[in-house]
Amino acid sequence: MNSRQLILENLCVNRPKTEPMLPDIPLFDTPVPVDRVAKFKEAVVSMGGEIIHVQAQGLDAALKKYTDEAKVICSHVPEIKGNLEITGDTQPTDLADVDVGIVRASFAVAETGSVCLTDADFGINSLGYLPQHLIVLVDPEDIVYNLHHAYRRSEGKKHAYMAFHTGPSATADIEGILIHGAQGVRSLSVILQPRLQKKSEGK
Asked: Which member of 84, 113, 131, 199 lies 3.0 to 4.6 Å from 44 by CB, making a disulfide possible if both were Cys?
């Protein structure tokens, strides 16, 4: 028996018989705001995002500001039609010239104004980063209070990944000049829109 095998054998023999108990992490939600939707809207705007209000004219009218001048619109939601469809053959680089990308978040976080997007929400991951403008649909019922609640949800375990997007891409160089869109979307807008079909958590 060589030294490596001896070390591994000793580790196995002396390994604790039971798994150590993990600490119970609190949710840090006291006091919880009465209106999570209002808190979420406020946080989105404070992080450089925009809330798009849908009036009686419907979604198409609400998006007119973005879609009128857009040449390429890629939508991964059934509520809004685009002119670039994601298929099984779509490559990430195929979305390089997308003006407007439209997705639906799995859920959102009121405290930070973040939207949680999984690989299933994107269809193809570059849809969250290459478009000039990203529009995210959020069901008001899918808004949790803070990140502690967010990480207790099952999306992170059921999908290949999940990403929290908080406002548009922004970076500041050493002189403190803020630039939007250098490493991602130039603008991130949120539409509070109930799902066409309700889902169970984490689906």
From this structure: 113
User: End-to-end distance of the chain based on CA atoms, in angstroms?
Assistant: 50
Residue type, 82: G
Summarised one tens digit per residue, pLDDT across range 72-131 is 999 999 999 999 999 999 999 999 999 999 999 999 999 999 999 999 999 999 999 999
Name all domains of the chain by residue range, CATH numbers in brackets: 28-192 (3.40.50.10420)
Strands 100-104 and 162-165 come out as: unpaired
pLDDT tens-digit series, residues 32-73: 667 999 999 999 999 999 999 998 778 888 999 889 999 999
For residue 184, how many other CB atoms are within 10 A of its CB? 18
Distance CA 124, CA 78 (A): 16
Task: Kindly report the number of other CB atoms within 10 A of residue 56's CB atom.
Answer: 5
Q: pTM of this prediction?
A: 0.83
Q: Phi and psi dihedrals of 81, rounded to 5?
A: -95, 140
d(CA 61, CA 68): 10
